[in-house]
Amino acid sequence: MKDDLDNATQDERDLLAAEYVLGTLAAGPRAEIEQRLDHDPALQAAVDAWEQRLLPLTELAAPTPPPAGVWPRIVDSVEGLQLVERINWWDRLALWRGLTALAVSACLVLGVLLLRAPPVSAPTYLVVLVAPQSNAPGWVIQAGERQNMQLIPLGVVEVPPDKSLQFWTKGEQWQAPVSLGLVKPGQTLQIPLDTLPPLEPNQLFELTLEGRGGSPTGKPTGPIQFIGRAVKVI
Amino acid sequence: MPVSLPEPPFDYEAQLAACARGERQALRRLYQQEGARLYGVLLRLVREPAVAEDLLHDAFLRIWTGAAGFDAQRGSGRGWMYSVTRHLALNALRQQQREVSDDAALEQPCAEAAECAQHLPSSRLQQCLEKLPAERRACIVHAYVDGFSHAQIARHLDAPLGTVKAWIKRSLAALRECLQ
């Protein structure tokens, strides 16, 4: 068949296209023609012309209303197809290849950054600040010896509009707590370590509810919202 | 007395474009417009209602998924729907014939196939078919409308297989020339 089609004269090819449309070709040659149509514009044009020429013959079949169940079946199948299209992005190889490539580059960049970073980069102190009554954790503090201390929220806390959350710390030998500034709910706070004496184990950290703009006295006056003590990480 | 306006012609191409955009109502309109005629074409080709129903379902799914690829430069939207439908049925018939014995009893859906062509609406094709000898006209109708293979036509017309093949080739060539 392949040879037939390749060696066929234009007239023979046109008659093959005609018999394809007419319906008299056997299964093998039919399949051969259908495979070729996509990349053989001349054959496609010949088939299209015959489809148009013979189309009036369809009038010879008496119209018959299809059974009522056919249309609901079509709707079900179309809905199924639309669902598959929606979830198909899961299966899109190109998408995942792209994301994988992105992830690999991100790993490389991070790796290079880590190699260039100061040798001590892991946090050396960790503090979990919990609510005094419920012990529910609300914030985490991490600090390295040479890096900024970070106060990281674990959730969003409600602060009345006329109040502020103030961040305090006190070493065991210190006479009074020192303010580390005001904290916005849900936001990470960065504190430069060089403004503080070196961190020590068991150092106290707390968040108190103060008037707007912070404690007027420079010492905590409002109720403690979260509290915790520094733990040295080995 | 109210004046009834003539109904605007059904715009197949617009409905197919809407299908390509995912509008299911457009597929419904195409089904309402052509469902009965396409089902009639399928019944005539495969003769079994259950098979024809399955093929009608498959054809409309093919129309739905293929609507985006429909090219109005290549032919009418309506013609494309018939091509999609007929080729699904023809593929089913030809594949089935490999397994099922060729001796399967044939009903006589159109005993006077040669006369069938007279029922065609007046068209160039009808005029050209009328010019063919009766038995060759019957070959074309049996093949296109009834889905008969060469062998089935030969048995039906009680003619040698080789003769039927030659008749069909010559008839197609004659139609092509007549329709130019």
Automatic annotation (TrEMBL), chain A:
One of its GO terms (cellular component) is plasma membrane. The chain crosses the membrane at residues 94-115. Residues 102-224 form the Anti-sigma K factor RskA C-terminal domain. One of its GO terms (biological process) is regulation of translation. It comes from the Bacteria. Keywords: Membrane, Transmembrane, Transmembrane helix. It holds the Pfam family RskA_C. Signal peptide: none annotated. One of its GO terms (molecular function) is sigma factor antagonist activity. The keyword Membrane applies. PANTHER family: ANTI-SIGMA-K FACTOR RSKA. This is RNA polymerase subunit sigma-70. It comes from Pseudomonas alkylphenolica.
UniProtKB/TrEMBL annotation, chain B:
Keywords: Sigma factor, Transcription, Transcription regulation. It comes from the Bacteria. Transmembrane segments: none annotated. Residues 124-175 form the RNA polymerase sigma factor 70 region 4 type domain. Residues 30-98 form the RNA polymerase sigma-70 region domain. InterPro entries: RNA_pol_sigma-70-like (IPR039425), RNA_pol_sigma-70_dom (IPR014284), RNA_pol_sigma70_r2 (IPR007627), RNA_pol_sigma70_r4_t2 (IPR013249), RNA_pol_sigma_r2 (IPR013325), RNA_pol_sigma_r3/r4-like (IPR013324), WH-like_DNA-bd_sf (IPR036388). The keyword Cell membrane does not apply. GO terms for molecular function: DNA binding; sigma factor activity. One of its GO terms (biological process) is DNA-templated transcription initiation. PANTHER family: RNA POLYMERASE ECF-TYPE SIGMA FACTO, RNA POLYMERASE SIGMA FACTOR SIGZ. Belongs to the sigma-70 factor family. ECF subfamily. This is RNA polymerase subunit sigma.
